[in-house]
Amino acid sequence: MKILRFFWSLAVFCVALAPLAAHAAVPHRVALADFAHSEKNFAAAIVMDINTKEILYEYNADKPWVPASLTKLVGALVFIERQPAWDAVVSLTEADEVGGGRLRVPDGATMTIQDLMYSSIVGSANNAATAFGRLSGLGMDGFVAAMNRKVRDLGCKNSYFEDLSGMDVDNRTTAREMLTIANAAFGRRQIQKPASTGEYTFIIRNSGEHKTVYNTNQLLTDADNGLYVTGGKTGFLYESLHNLVYRVRPEKDDMQRELLIVVLGAPSRADLFAEAELLAKWSWQTYSWEGSPSSALAEAAEIPNGTLIKKPDSPAVWYVWKGKKYVLLDGVFLDHYFPGVPIQTVTSEVAEAFTSARPYTFDNGELLKSPNNPIVYYVERGMLRPISSENAFLSMGWNWSDIVTAPAWLLNTYSQGLAINTQNTGSVLLTSR
């Protein structure tokens, strides 16, 4: 009886403990600075914490986009859910050819279902992906209809597909919905395993030929980038540019900080992988999965862009903009750019919540001089161009009252550029427009 009571108590303890064990750490921001990117780097992107489904970053996440070969994740998901025999031997036929990247084998080449899946996901072979429709027994139209039912069941109302390979430019999705689709696909071992494989070799059964397919996901195959990729798929069409969805950890055993990231519409492969890598590393630097949110960070987040702040124990003044603080190196910036603007005194903790950025600098087109030197300088692209004569100054239509007097030490922090004389004042007009 005592033994039975022991096991009953143990069972109750385990049931009570289960919710605690399953509870995932919630990421919270520890830095205010937003992810820095240019609109030219990509068309849309989104980052999600795998365990809590918290969105850590998004940009144009609901913008309609052509998914290209990311489409193959939908086809793979539909095919796997029909529970095919993984080691069943099937054939590729000429009917599976749709152009683009393909598994280069003769008509009737035989391989296993596993080989076909790896060829579709690792090698992004269009004929391998298209074969799923024929082999499913649904027919091509029936399989595409099943794909669209699947994405609707996942809650994706803005995604629809016209083919299995991703070659059709009428396919549509969004970064947010591709995140949902990839999360479901990578949740299936039969898809996640090939999606995290760098290369795969298999044998064509009816010829004995060895075939190797290679993954185009550079973040997976680069051993030195500090990323542990647990799944991914690339896609490219001229109408879609370069696209990637991938699941990633900072280290193999760090499942707590695993992310799912989508980047759509990068202009080049280099941009695609660079931005996708930066998004992961920015997320791990900007969020913490330990402790509780900082009250100082919350207070800092309430400070509007354009505010001037200082600590109570220091004369230094910063200009706040998008989570960063730009130190004003001298009072001349206050007098010239912020006349009469109040300075908000904040705690050291609030000030440190902002990322330190470069010192505040003079704008292009400003006229500067030091108190003890008559030379006047024109600011252009971070350099000071000395104005060689009074005639050159006046020929530009400048006014002596526009000159800002700054300390010599501050002017010495700039590099000097080409002098401005009466012969080259036209170039100043061009660069200052």
Note down, in words, how this protein is organized.
The structure is a single chain. The chain is α+β, with helices and mostly antiparallel strands and 433 residues long. It has three domains: 28-288, DD-peptidase/beta-lactamase superfamily (Beta-lactamase, 3-Layer(aba) Sandwich); 295-356, no CATH class; 367-431. Helix content is 33%, strand content 21%. The chain is built from 15 helices and 21 strands. The chain has helices at 2-22, 72-80, 113-121, 126-136, 139-153, 175-186, 189-195, 218-221, 269-286, 295-301, 331-337, 348-353, 390-395, 408-411, 425-431; strands at residues 28-29, 44-49, 55-59, 89-91, 110-112, 199-203, 210-214, 228-237, 241-249, 259-266, 287-288, 308-310, 317-321, 324-328, 343-345, 355-356, 367-369, 377-380, 383-386, 403-405, 415-416. The strands form six sheets. The protein has a five-stranded antiparallel β-sheet with strand order 3-2-10-9-8, with helices on both faces. Strand 2 and strand 3 (55-59) form a beta hairpin. The longest helix has 21 residues, at 2-22. The radius of gyration is 30 Å and the shape is elongated. 35% of the residues are buried. Mean pLDDT is 89; it is low at 1-22.
